[in-house]
Amino acid sequence: MIGQRIKSLRKAKGLTQGALALRLGLTQQAVAKWESEQSAPDYHMLIRIAEALGIGPESLFSSRERLPVHLSDGDLPGMLDGMNARQILPREQKMVPVLGVVKAGYGLPAEEEELGLEPADVNDPSRYFYLVVRGDSMEPGIRDSDLALVRKQATLEDGDLGVVVYGDGEGTLKRFHRKGDAVALQAFNPSYETLILTGDELDKLYIIGKVVETRTRW
């Protein structure tokens, strides 16, 4: 099984679960779940694991196992023979600051605090930041405590998922819609009404950025 293979190779390299997790930008719990077969890394993560262990990707598999990728059986062996882990690894991730908390529910307080750094697949980390989502208005797609990766920008297109500040400084994560002279901030959760801003209310609407990715923290 792949989890036992990761465990064996990790120990052979003299690494703890925590040390491997640090190289991958993950938590020790994530590695523990792989090794206990509670979850399994996807293809791109397997390539990152191989690089972190200083081995070729094929070393993670026995001769009876197959890589879980969407390539034909004929293409894969030649590709692995001709490439090392770094050549087929996605672009190097950068560390992006977690700047605070954004609410996903009306009437929730917005917090501002430094919460450390998290990895992100971006070219220029200075243009991005993470926010921790609080509330349930964006469920089931985005859940409480998920991380939202935000690209700093002052405009949003109709249908974008964005972080905005409105009124007396309330910040929220919502689907942005422009309807004529009005702006609608729409929740995913049907239990929440869409907030419509018009007239003078639009003068107090500030777009912080576009949400380009969300993910669940381990």
Task: Give a brief rundown of this model.
This protein is an alpha+beta fold and 218 residues long. The protein has helices at 2-12, 17-24, 28-35, 43-53, 75-82, 85-88, and strands spanning 94-103, 117-120, 128-134, 147-152, 161-166, 170-179, 182-186, 195-197, 206-215.
Order of helices and strands: HHHHHHEEEEEEEEE
Helix content: 10-25%
List low-pLDDT spans: 63-91, 106-112
Q: Whole-number radius of gyration?
A: 21 Å
N-to-C terminal Cα separation, in Å?
22 Å
Number of helices: 6
Q: Quick one: how many beta strands?
A: 9
Structural class: alpha+beta
Report on the biggest sheet. Answer: 9 strands, mixed
Global shape: elongated
Strand content: 25-35%
Strand order of the largest sheet: 2-1-3-4-9-5-6-7-8
State mean pLDDT (0 to 100 scale).
77
CATH architecture of the largest domain: Ribbon
CATH topology of the largest domain: Umud Fragment, subunit A
Number of domains: 2
CATH C-level label of the largest domain: Mainly Beta
- The CATH superfamily label of the largest domain reads Umud Fragment, subunit A
Write up what this structure looks like.
The protein is of the alpha+beta class. It is built from six helices and nine strands, in the order ααααααβββββββββ. The chain has two domains: 2-88, Orthogonal Bundle (434 Repressor (Amino-terminal Domain)), CATH 1.10.260; 94-215, Ribbon (Umud Fragment, subunit A). Mean pLDDT is 77; it is low at 63-91 and 106-112.
